[in-house]
Amino acid sequence: MEFLVLGGGCFWCLDIIFQNLKGVESVIPGYAGGFSKNPTYIEVCTEKTGHAEVIKIEFDPKKITINELLNIFWKAHDPTTLNRQGNDIGKRYRSIILYFNQKQYIYIEKSLQNLKKSKKYSSPIITEIKPLDIFYSAEEYHHDYYNKNPNQPYCNLVINPKLKKLNMFKKKSN
């Protein structure tokens, strides 16, 4: 098994998107990329911890590659907006990839270069790429949020359109 940490807006959105992929064993929402220890959701929301809302993906590279995960990541959010995804505004919503080792860094850089060459975006891609220092799991009520709260307005107004765009309304089958 391997791990990858991604941030691109609210972690509730990325959580359900990556849960649905064959080869993904688990997705844990959390916080990374900041400087304070053991941050809480309330503290991260103050923008004073430096953390981003992220997900930690555990995946089987024999079933899904890091390149496939990164391709979905690029489609699931806008990597050109600084500290923002739609109406979610703040540094905690920044586009960020945190890697575990040099091998992952090479794949990430190649994926980023391919995205830039594709000219999919007219604005510069500003995704932050850096080694993972530490990952903090979010509070339990954030885990599997979409599946536990499908009728919550945020799920209907923000997450459902993303799932529809990515054609991901079906549950995975491993």
Provide the gyration radius in Å: 15 Å
The CATH topology comes to Peptide Methionine Sulfoxide Reductase, Chain A
Helix content: 25-40%
The CATH class, by name, is Alpha Beta
Shape: globular
Number of separate strands = 8
Distance between the termini: 14 Å
Topology as H/E string? EHEHEHEEEHEEHH
Low-pLDDT parts are 170-174
Largest sheet: 6 strands, mixed
Number of domains: 1
Model description:
- A hairpin with a 2-residue loop joins strand 4 and strand 5 (88-89).
- It contains six helices and eight strands; from the N terminus they run E-H-E-H-E-H-E-E-E-H-E-E-H-H.
- It is globular, with a radius of gyration of 15 Å.
- Helix 1 crosses helix 3, helix 1 packs across helix 6 and helix 3 crosses helix 4 (102-118).
- A six-stranded mixed sheet has the order 7-6-1-3-2-8, with helices on one face.
- The protein has one domain (2-165): 2-Layer Sandwich (Peptide Methionine Sulfoxide Reductase, Chain A).
- The protein starts with a strand and ends in a 9-residue tail after the last helix.
- By secondary structure, it is of the alpha+beta class.
